[in-house]
Amino acid sequence: MSRRRASDPVRVLAPRAEAGRISRRALLGGFAVIGTASLLGCGSRSMASTASPDGTLEGRLNVYSWGDYESPDNIRAFREANDVTVQVDAFASNEEMIAKIGASRGTSGYDVLVPSGQFVPMMVANDLLSKLDHSLLPNLANIEPAFTDQPWDPGNAYTVPKAWGTTGFAYDRTKVDGRPRSWQDFLDVAAGQASGSVSLLDDPWEVTSIYFGAKGIDPNTTDPADLDAAEAYLTEELAPHVRNFNSAPTQSVIQNELALLQMYNGDARLAFGESDDPDRWRFVYPTPTANLWVDTWALARGAQHVDSAHAFIDFMLDPEVAIGEVDWNGYPTGVAGQRALAEEWELDMLDLIFPPDKVVARLTPAELTDAQDRLTSILEQVQAKAG
Question: Are 169 and 261 a contacting pair, CB within 8 Å?
Fold first, then answer.
């Protein structure tokens, strides 16, 4: 059960259908990566300057995040404790956010952004983020080491964790015998018992990583031979057995439509929780590896409410506040001791919120590499040949 409290909604400037938290893990699904020049706008105009903190909270804070991703109770608590008006606007993809921030050249008006980790290097390279002042973030000490100092932001110079999760698969125990545990098992079941009843995520990295994981290849590989092999296998051997591509396939679980579904752990929890027969479903954290995605809090280039921005981020890293975020969106934040608090709050299906430590230890953070266009092309070919 959940202790979520009734609350007034936080105002977000995007429809839920476009920016709902259920579907927010679809990072690149279904369309080609836009070139950096197009994504960030053209021209050589200088970037606006970020204000310097002076120890006094400003009366306003502008946050640009995924839709419905922050607990309204926490937003209200921060506002009331600090007399700061918080405006939360929503985007539906990292690309949309980056394009808007890049075109504004630091004059977007936003203070706090929520990019996914693999997009951070691109944003830093194009001067879209400002460095955080760690002296204003004492609660950074609450973050578990596993979620700090990521390859895409060494030393957490620009970001701190907001939420994290991983990818696996769910299967219907009434349709699939045995206990599949690996990506190779996933491929075998897809071509066998679940043929024609398979759903894949609508995301190039995630789909190709099924093959790479099954064959023991780094899912961030850029080796042309690896990419050629993935394309051949996925288009010829897997695609004919796939029914659809959906980055939020919760309804397919609820309606018992399919037998085998690639899913994010939080979406699986949501689906199982709404199913009339959750015991027929099992979620697998597959070996040998899967995506460790981390969404982050970041300070926008050109931010003018920097004291309030740091205070807000630090507030969200407080354990009692952070557990409210878990209760709201179903994903952990990386704050230490969170599972014990989740038990105290009586949150359900904790193993789908918190992957076991041995699982986390073998996960691989997705990277935005030079192979991304090729990965997108492979996904498009798999979709074209899907049964």
Answer: yes
Residue 124: partners with Cβ closer than 8 Å, 6 or more residues away: 153, 158
SS3 91: strand
Report how far residue 268's alpha carbon sits from residue 170's, in angstroms, rounded to the nearest whole number. 7
pLDDT digits (tens, 9 = 90+) for 305-338: 999 999 999 999 999 999 999 988 889 999 999 9
Tell me the residue type at 319.
Answer: P
For the ranges 45-49, 225-229, 267-271, the lowest mean pLDDT is seen at: 45-49
Q: What is the mean pLDDT of residues 236-257?
A: 94
Q: What angle do CA 375, 377, 383 make, to 5 degrees?
A: 105
27 within 8 A of 202, measured Cβ to Cβ: no
* Amino acid (1-letter code) at residue 273: G
Tokens of 248: 């939020």
Is the CB of residue 293 less than 8 Å from the CB of residue 163?
no
Residue 33 in this model has a pLDDT that exceeds 60: no
Closest by CA to 264, choosing from 323, 200, 339, 186, is 200
CA separation for the pair 184, 204 (Å, rounded):
18
The residue behind tokens 């194009």 is 126
310 contacts: CB under 8 Å, gap ≥ 6: 53, 132, 133, 136, 137, 299
